[in-house]
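Dear colleague,

Following up on Tuesday's group meeting, I ran the structure prediction for the two-component complex that the binding team flagged. I've pasted the input sequences exactly as they went in, so you can double-check that nothing got truncated or mislabelled along the way. The structure tokens for the whole assembly follow below. Feel free to forward this to whoever is handling the docking comparison.

Inputs:
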Amino acid sequence: MTAARRTYAGVAAATLVATVAACGGSSSAGSAGKSGSVSGTINVFAAASLTEAFTTLGKQFEAAHPGVKVVFDFGPSSGLAEQIDQGAPADVFASASTKSMDQVVSAGSASNPTPFVKNVMEIAVPPSNPAHVATVKDLSNSGVKVALCQSQVPCGSTAAQVFTNAKVTVKPVTEEVDVKSVLAKVELGEVDAGVVYVTDVRSAGSKVDGVAIPDSINASTTYPIAALTKSHSAATARAFVSYVLSSDGSAVLTADGFQKP
Amino acid sequence: MPWPLAVPALIGVLFLLVPLVGLLVRAPWSGLSRILSDAGVTSALRLSLVCATAATAISLVLGVPLAWALARVRLRGISALRALVTLPLVLPPVVGGVALLLALGRHGLVGQYLDSWFGITLPFTTAGVVVAETFVAMPFLIITVEGAFRSADRGLEEAARTLGASRMTVFRRVTLPMVAPSLGAGAVLCWARALGEFGATITFAGNLPGVTQTMPLKVYLALESDPEAAIALSLVLLGVSVLVLAGLRDRWLRPSTPL
């Protein structure tokens, strides 16, 4: 499935949920203050690379707050930021780069984002490693089919930084919309290698192998998170952000391979 | 017109037209020539036109004989076959893309042999775009032309046969000219569908500027970084659609003419 479809489906679902939630809220006779209590449904727009960690965090948060439902839309940070600017009903935004978060902040949709994790890049190859990729330099060989994220997505710009550091030029066969699409092309064996986050290699388990990038040339991206100013469930949104920033939250994130910011 | 019909009809008209008006109102008219002369845009447009035309050509070569077979061959299971080959009409294109990847990808059912025997890999190539577009668009041609084969006057064909023409000659000289208008309409529909293809293309052929990034992919991706460019590109595709409709006007805008 493409991220495009995933994102649209997510927005549709989020819109529906928000509508239903709004209808339900008006009939509850103000027993719970709309923005004062942790209740209802929140829509969390998060970078694709956070899929596994945030899904776990969402379940834990729901378990800790009965009646609360967390709906996720995972996709490319740049695309999610654009959707938020266009008025998508998001309550929390977790971006894979400060750039996409800054876009949302400067549009007035968020304030005071908090950096919560850092991620570095790794080369993902099919388990058989058909092109025998062992170093970043191998990716520049003409016979090696490489999938990258498109340049406006954080995983694309961070991978570009790695190539600059390694002084190599990599010509990809495809520029995918987000990091999970790159990973999928590696898992299917349609490409010989993809540059993804270390967390993606870990979450893919045995479906891909990782080829580590030395610290001297690796690049990192910082993930900020913020509750959004136009949220209709501001208290719940803030509570979710606090949970992500808590020690419980960071335990889940570091277990998935994310680093402290 | 009674109001219970007029009101929904009016809402229907507005629903279909307002988004297009929105596109026209928000269009960055002053920057249009700058955006459209961008090298990335012209290469995406050229790629779209070339691939859609190639997909239509393949659909004509394979689809017309198939449509003829579906209309004329009397065999058990032919209606099931018709349902199967027109399945891509109703199949979500992204599912088509996944299916193509599993069939024609490097490790696919057929693709692994294309790769090991001939060294051909289709994903992430311009040929892959043509394959994805053909898969999605060919059924439009098939059902249009099949309907025409079905309703064509068999008497003329039989007359030609009694005058000594071979079956192939009858097909070329009598049947094809009779269905020519539907053939044209089917080809235009097929071309337009191929031009707009997104889901199967991005799934099967990936996204690389100049190689597999067609206009619909460019529009979708531009929306994330440069909404003005996305609107300008959408305008181009809207313009193409209007041209297609103008080309089909004799068939579609006259309600009494059957397709």
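The interface with chain A takes residues 92, 94, 97-98, 101, 105-107, 123-124, 198-199, 202-203, 205-209, 211-212, 220-221, 223-225, 227 of chain B (CB under 8 Å).

Cheers,
M.
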